[in-house]
Amino acid sequence: MTDKLIKRLFLKILLFQLVFLGSAIFFSIAFTAHFKYRLGNQLMAAFRNDLLMGDTRTAMLELPGAIRGDFTGVKWIPSGPSQAFSIPENIYFSVSLVYSQSVVPIYFDEKRIGKCGELVFYYYRWTPIMWALIVWSLLFVVSIPVWLREKKKIVYEYALSVKAEINESRANISAQVAHDIRSPLTALDAALKNVAQLPEEQRIIVRHAVNRIRDIANNLLEKNWRQSKTAPAACPGVPACEPLEVCLLSSLVDPVITEKRLQSESKPGINIDFELTAASYGLFAKIQPVEFKRLVSNLVNNAVEVLGDKGAVNVGLAHEDENIILTVADKGKGIPPEILAKLGQRGETHGKARGSGLGLFHARTTAENWGGSLGITSELGKGTTVTVKLPTVEPPAWFVSRLELPSGKTIVVMDDDESIHQVWRGRFESARVKEQGIEVYHYSEPGKLRGWFKGNTAKAEDAVYLFDYELLGHKETGLSLAEELGLGGKVILVTSRYEEKRIMQECERLKIRMIPKGLAGLVPITAVDSGERIVDREETVKKAVDPTPASGVEVLIDDDALVQMTWKMSARANGITLKAFKAPAEFLASLETFPKNTPIYVDSELGEGIKGEDIAKIIYARGFETIYLETGHPPEHFVGMSWIKKVISKAPPWGDDNDQ
Q1: 285, 402, 635, 649: most buried by Cβ count inside 10 Å?
Q2: Does the bond joining 395 to the residue before it have cis omega, within 30 degrees of 0?
Q3: Which residue, 100, 124, 148, sits at the end of a domain?
Q4: 431 and 519 in a common domain
Q5: What is the pLDDT of residue 546?
Q6: How many CB atoms neighbour CB 61 within 10 A?
């Protein structure tokens, strides 16, 4: 496009030059002809009387001096008997591109009736044309810098217009994409109401994915609005000026990590780990949730990219004094100190072929806008850790920071998912609630709960109720059931939909608090006995980087991230602590920290030609005997391997359908 504009400018200037040249030549010729004619008239007046009297001799003698420098020649052509002559003698000029003539007639009287003859003056036509060409050449030289300046101006203005068009196109595309996403989002929301066949954790994953898509659509619309209007000054440095909210960070980090694991499925050697612990429970910060997810996503992307096709990324969430600590650590090559000091600045990057440095820059500026900070530590050959510190804030009123159970009272659990009942059984056993005379009742159907409530009014009056919101297969919800029975503040809603405004508003109206269902296994439980609190053992266990596993821990060695995710979900649902390893070397390095009776599940095909049965034999030789080989092949393929207790499928072994 710029070439066309420049060519058009060139043609305009060329046309101007040609028109000017033609005009200069035309006017120079016309002016010269007029000048020569007047000069000829003056000469004619000087010799008129002599020529009228027939005295051509005087004219022949004096005309050569008179015409010198102005004419190339002159010829007298008489009309009567007078003698004709020419200067020089026998002159002959034809009127052409080279020569021209000016004819001056001589009359006998002033009325110009009788013509005596005419003087024909010849002159060189190219003398004025040469001067016109010289003037045109000077103008042409002057026009060169003008041409260059205009060319530069065209290129600059075109670049600005292209940039404006690109920004407008991006804004239009963003708005269109955000608009078009709305329809499938509505369909997905409708479909989510009919997913009774999906387990609870899978419903959570789907719901998080839908919410993330909605966040992206909203963010696109917000950015489009900000580009079309003057950006408010309240949010300097933050790309999307969404309002600050008090958010539970674990609920934001977890779905992002799930998304990143699915994205990295094409790299089976990459392991992304985020393990929720007691130290990560109930950590709230005042942030912008969409930007926080973007921050975590960028940091994990950076860590994965520097690893190449193999390595581990560990994401941690804990607290230190009044700060929340988010860490993203990779076991890559590390960063030299001279480069480390520059990272976090715009345009500074390391270890990425086409990196722009904007991911770290965005993370740093975003954290600082929230009153936090970003730090990077690295050791060559060992890896890099990015630490984001954010100030903690008080949990909102709806959040249950600690589940306090009064001694001698009753707990009623209402949930349609048996795996959640198993989680609560494990938690209450760990908290030794029976020793405090606390009874626990489990129900999966609203009708049976109503029956118990009517038949045990004394216990029901002082009980603590843990209700799920969604009761699949029933028209009631946990909230409608609580309102029907008039339980109010005695109910704690345990749901994965705790962030939905409608549910929050209902809980506020009914004075009901909530526990995120994914954190049911982590909420601190306190049983009160005679003024003395007996704290849940899990609350006192602080997980270090390489904790010594207690009895009850089980081990999975599998290089498939999706298998690890599935097994971890199943283990958590069944109240089992599962330690997952991607590479056999990682487990063998920490082998001595596990009790000899630890159940160990080894994948038959571990990648890079490593066979699980060979690894199992090494583990068996170290004194471990409860070793299972998980594989998609029939058990008959592994006959005669005495060190393997049993060959099982790739499905998690816990639950009613899987007996070891």
Answers
A1: 285
A2: no
A3: 124
A4: yes
A5: 36
A6: 10
Block residue for tokens 């009708």: 447
Both 562 and 523 in one domain: the answer is: no
533 shares a domain with 422: yes
- Same domain, yes or no: 422 and 532: yes
Residue 99 CA from chain centroid, whole number: 77
216 secondary structure, DSSP code: H
Report residue 447 as tokens: 């009708």
| Sequence-ordered list of residues with C-beta below 8 angstroms from that of 535, at least 6 positions apart, any chain | 431, 524, 525, 526
Which CATH number goes with the domain that contains 379?
Answer: 3.30.565.10
The residue with tokens 């490593």 is 610
Q: By residue range, what is the domain housing residue 523? A: 403-540
pLDDT of 220 reads 63
- The SS3 assignment for 405 reads strand
Distance between CA atoms of residues 345 and 240, nearest Å:
19
pLDDT(260) > 90? no
Token pair in block for residue 618: 């090494």
Q: 81-108: per-residue pLDDT in tens?
A: 778 888 888 777 666 666 788 888 888 7
Number of neighbours of residue 53 by Cβ within 10 angstroms: 11
Torsion angle, alpha carbons of 67, 71, 77, 82, to 10: 10
145 falls within a domain: no
20 and 103 inside one domain = yes
Q: Which helix (H) or strand (E) holds 107?
A: strand 99-107
C-beta of residue 601 within 8 angstroms of C-beta of residue 632: no
- Mean pLDDT computed over 363-391: 90
- Whether residue 199 lies inside any domain: the answer is no
Q: Judge contact between 391 and 367, C-beta under 8 A.
A: no
**One domain, residues 387 and 256:** yes
Cβ density class 438-452: b for 16+ within 10 Å, e for less: bebbbbbebeebeee
Of residues 300 and 31, the one with the higher pLDDT is 300
pTM listed for this prediction: 0.50
Q: Same domain, yes or no, for 535 and 578?
A: no
Q: What is the mean pLDDT of the chain?
A: 80
DSSP state of 98: S
DSSP SS3 for 308: coil
CATH number at residue 628: 3.40.50.2300
CA-closest candidate to residue 312, choices 546, 578, 558, 586: 586
Task: Write the pLDDT tens digit of every residue in 202-221.
Answer: 666 676 677 667 666 666 65
According to DSSP, the residues that pair with 326 across neighbouring strands are 317, 388
pLDDT the model gives residue 538: 41
Q: List residues bridging with 386 in a β-sheet.
A: 328, 376
